[in-house]
Amino acid sequence: MNEEIVLCAANSYEQKFYLNPEFDSLPENIRQELQIMCVLYTEDVGGILMLVFDEAGNLELKVDHEEGDFFFDEIGSVLKIKQLQQTKRELFESLELFFRVFYLGEEQE
């Protein structure tokens, strides 16, 4: 079974941001950074951006858009995701460590 846990998501269609309540223990500045990052992404290219943890604790950025959405920028989306993976690498690695320790119970050396 492939279990994914959503950390957060932003939806340009409903203009909403969602943070999984299970992650309310994250520091306020991290929660704000996630919200700003996700909302700016959807404002820029449209669609829906989700940050999800896979069963091994890896953080993945998943993008979706409604069928027939001619305003969704697929090329811009790919470029923006690559940019986020570079500029937010430290944040993403910290979130993965947090998830592995507190949710998967892994011990860190």
Automatic annotation (TrEMBL):
Alphabetized Pfam families for the sequence: DUF6145 (PF19642)
Organism superkingdom: Bacteria
Protein name as catalogued: Uncharacterized protein
